Amino acid sequence: MATTTGTSTQGITPFLWFNGNVEEALNFYTSVFEDSKIASSHRLPAEVPGRGGQIMTATIILNGVEFMLLDGGPQFTFTPAISFFVKCETQAEVDHYWEKLSEGGRKDRCGWLTDKYGISWQIVPNALGRLMYNSDPAKARKVMDAMMQMSKIEIAGLEEAYNS
């Protein structure tokens, strides 16, 4: 299965439409995710009026996932109806992604945030699934109730609810 980079076997690639800030976005995202890189970028010819030399398209890899970025202009914007779910093993990972991705954006409830480009992210510790999908419905409900009160998800708070 070929992709634009020729090296990925990923069958579906998220394609993100930006408005004049692709280069800023790709540098931001690759700085947030440790296992990331800019796989390719293509600039407009210098003679293009008002946009010469700007990146038109790029491919980045974030935590092993390929994303394509396009500077498509103002016609379309992002919506929370689509988000990226970031699985975290530790609270330190949750804290890192929560703080970095929300810089200049908006922190919402239950681990959701919107970054400065309008992209929605869910920053979720793996502990949430382990604790919520338990055979004891009363414990699972307590975990759900605790999570519903949180903005950034705190593993200790989930565990406290589970053990109460």
Structural overview:
The chain has a four-stranded mixed β-sheet, covered by helices on one side. It has a four-stranded mixed β-sheet with strand order 5-8-7-6. The protein is 31% helix and 27% strand. The chain folds into two domains: 15-71, Signal recognition particle alu RNA binding heterodimer, srp9/1; 83-163, Roll (2,3-Dihydroxybiphenyl 1,2-Dioxygenase, domain 1). It has helices spanning 22-32, 91-102, 126-132, 137-148, 155-163; strands at 15-18, 36-43, 55-62, 65-71, 83-88, 106-107, 112-114, 120-125. The chain is an alpha/beta fold. The termini are far apart.
* CATH homologous superfamily label of the largest domain: 2,3-Dihydroxybiphenyl 1,2-Dioxygenase, domain 1
Q: Please tell me the overall pLDDT.
A: 93
DSSP strand tally: 8
Oligomer: single chain
Rounded to an integer, what's the Rg over CA atoms?
19 Å
> Number of helix segments?
5
> What is the topology, as strand order, of the major beta sheet?
1-4-3-2
Strand pairing plus helix content: what structural class? alpha/beta
